[in-house]
Amino acid sequence: CAILDVHAACQDATVTQELLKEGFHRDLLVKVELGAVGEDAGGCAVAARTHLPPGIYVDPYELASLQQHNLTKVVLVPDVIDVEAPEYLATNLLVLLYLEPDPGCSRCFRAALPVHGRYHRPAEESEEALVVLKSPEVLACCCDNRLSAECWKPAEVEAPCSGKNMGPCQWYSITHKPAYEESILQVPVGLRQHSSLVCVMTLLATVLCSSLILATVCKYGNFS
User: What residue numbers bound the domain in which 203 lies?
Assistant: First the structure.
């Protein structure tokens, strides 16, 4: 691995975080541009560590499929997630997203991760709930280098540098300036004044469907 220039490493990184698509199912795109480290950045692995609030989650089954096809590299803490839990029963999720080098920029890295909004409690007035996603922390893991303690801070991360199932290595936190301090996910929610109507319509739909199933069984069922 290459050795990073200390003076170059002291320059801030720039982080851009975007939520793509609309509705409950989104893509979280993270882009990092390191300080003017030039080609030396190729000797380091770069990752973004972010805390997802209870209103948003990563589907571990979808993630396993993506990782099986080498489409993304992610470490989740905890790794067991209840995808059916509503927002008010869920907990925070720690995500370590490994970034890939950007072919168009020697010191740029990027990666996308599918995320999903959780169901929220019905609201009084607004038809949307806001989920605030803070800017991620930028981490770097380099081989055979001497990083200045003034520029790099050791980070407590229990994850390998390569994203594969290997022993953990030493990660370092990079000073960065986010393009935006936070991103906001707008999740559709129901209105409380519609609760009675929803209950009645749900009951009617259940009775109708049950009646159709029962009628079909009685008509075509073999009870002999």
Answer: 192-223
Strand pairing report for 176-178 and 13-20: parallel
Q: Residue 39: what pLDDT?
A: 45
Same domain, 183 and 73: yes
CA distance 9 to 12: 8
CA distances from 85 to 55, 113, 116, 194, 198 (A): 10, 20, 12, 22, 20
Looking only at the bridges linking them, the beta strands covering 93-101 and 44-52 are: antiparallel
Instruction: State the pLDDT confidence band at 37, using cuts at 50, 70 and 90.
Output: very low
Residue 4 lies in a domain: no
| Residue 156 to residue 82: CA distance in whole angstroms | 26
Coil, strand, or helix at residue 113? Answer: strand
Tens-place pLDDT, residues 113-150: 999 999 888 877 777 888 898 889 888 887 655 445 56
> Are both 176 and 197 inside the same structural domain?
no
Question: Which regions of 102-151 does DSSP assign to beta strands (E)?
Answer: 108-117, 128-134, 137-142
Q: What is the pLDDT of residue 5?
A: 42
Would you say 182 and 51 are in contact if contact means Cβ atoms under 8 Å apart? no
The SS3 of residue 99 is strand
pLDDT at position 213 is 92
Q: How far apart are CA 161 and CA 178, in angstroms?
A: 23
Q: Tell me, what CATH number does 165's domain have?
A: 2.60.40
Same domain, residue pair 173 and 198:
no
